[in-house]
Write a structure and sequence with these properties.
Order of helices and strands: HEHEHHEHEEHHHHHHHHEEHHEEEEE
Radius of gyration: 22 Å
Distance between the termini: 39 Å
Number of domains: 2
Helix content: 40-55%
Largest sheet: 5 strands, parallel
Strand order of the largest sheet: 2-3-4-1-5
Shape: globular
Strand content: 5-15%
Structural class: alpha/beta
Length: 399
């Protein structure tokens, strides 16, 4: 165990502390059992190690961070670790990449039941569905999902422009004071295109070729490693799933035709629907339904979007169309903390059953959403609101 404490000190010393994401403050770190989930590369491990640096002194043996892919767990179980850690006064245990440990849920349940004063934080893939383990942890564990960087966070990370979150209520009722606050520090349109291309994952180093290779590797890792291990997807089908992702990335958002997708991917209809669910859980795509309240298991979505615009650019070999890019950005930000439905003939998105949004360019008119209460246009290439026409970049401050 001493070796684990040494590794922890090395990792904590290398953890950048200049910027701590606001989402870290929304996590109840005092929960007896919590899981921090998110796709590879969004910064889960960094958020955890930053928390330890901020709340524990160097050399404190009451806290322990360890990754489940270290050699220690080749010969030792989680239960072995907890027994020794707890007897030595351990109080807060952080287990990173827990989905890489076989039968993790059984041991975590036992730890929850027999060590009630030990706080345990799990970190893992977005596919870390706690209902999928051998033991039901859903009633015991609090889940937090970590997104990639919002446009607001991108400005903070890469341009050192620190601005607050703008709730959707303020955005739709009185955005002018908030926008005035933004323009005191920057002109957002000057940075927006770079964000759409390179801003979602927090590891861009001014090398777009390398960045897209890293993003593609994240997608490949999820499909080829995590889906077979966590969702029991047949290895032989991972190539077809990658083809399915490329089909979605190369198409404009459209009303889904499963028959067409079956022909293009070589997968049967029930298999496609199951795989779309896995890709959604893995935060690689966003399926959109017209009636969330009545969605049935493995129901065909009305529309499908790639999770974010950076993945869209990384996967497609064709020029990304402006309409697809705008809608991908919009659904990515609107879906964080809100329920989003397909508006069909009346707008692109209906949010929380209250707000209707139509996405377009600066000249977009209100024809499709005329006479609909609380309806708005999210328009690209504009700086300020004009009535209910809002700048598209503004929803980049929702989180």
């Amino acid at each position: 165990m001493q070796r684990l404490f040494q590794l922890q000190e090395q990792l904590l010393a290398l953890t950048p502390m200049e910027i701590v994401r606001q989402c870290a403050s929304n996590i109840n770190w005092d929960s007896q059992l919590l899981a921090i989930r998110g796709p590879k590369g969004v910064g889960k491990s960094t958020i955890i190690r930053q928390y330890i640096n901020l709340h524990y002194t160097k050399g404190d043996k009451t806290v322990l961070y360890c990754s489940m892919d270290t050699n220690y767990f080749v010969e030792h179980s989680i239960l072995d670790l907890v027994e020794h850690f707890y007897r030595q006064g351990g109080k807060h245990l952080f287990l990173d990449e827990v989905h890489k440990y076989p039968n993790w849920s059984r041991e975590i349940k036992e730890i929850y039941d027999y060590y009630p004063d030990l706080r345990v934080v799990l970190s893992g893939s977005s596919l870390l569905c706690l209902m999928q383990g051998d033991t039901d942890l859903s009633r015991r564990c609090v889940n937090y999902d970590i997104q990639g960087l919002s446009f607001r966070e991108y400005l903070c990370f890469y341009e050192h422009i620190d601005l607050p979150v703008c709730p959707i209520e303020e955005l739709t009722t009185n955005p002018h004071p908030f926008i005035a606050q933004i323009y005191k520090q920057c002109k957002p349109l000057a940075y927006f295109d770079n964000y759409l291309r390179y801003g979602y994952f927090p590891y861009f180093k001014n090398n777009p070729i390398e960045y897209y290779a890293l993003v593609s590797n994240v997608v490949r890792y999820i499909i080829e490693e995590e889906l077979p291990r966590i969702c029991k997807v047949e290895l032989a089908n991972t190539r077809k799933i990658r083809a399915l992702m490329n089909i979605i990335a190369s198409s404009e958002p459209y009303e889904v035709d499963i028959t067409r997708m079956s022909i293009q991917s070589g997968l049967q209809r029930p298999t496609i629907l199951a795989y779309l669910k896995y890709l959604s859980d893995a935060r690689l795509i966003i399926p959109l339904y017209s009636d969330l309240a009545n969605v049935k298991k493995l129901q065909k979505p009305d529309k499908i979007y790639i999770e974010d615009s950076n993945i869209l650019f990384a996967l497609t070999s064709r020029p990304v169309k402006e309409g697809t890019l705008r809608e991908t950005f919009a659904i990515n930000h609107l879906s964080v903390g809100h329920n989003v439905e397909y508006g069909k003939q009346h707008g692109d998105f209906v949010v929380d059953g209250k707000y209707t949004f139509e996405v377009g360019g600066a000249s977009k008119n209100f024809k499709q959403i005329a006479d609909i209460p609380n309806s708005f246009i999210l328009a690209d290439d504009i700086d300020y609101p004009y009535g209910n026409k809002l700048p598209l970049w503004l929803i980049g401050f929702l989180y």
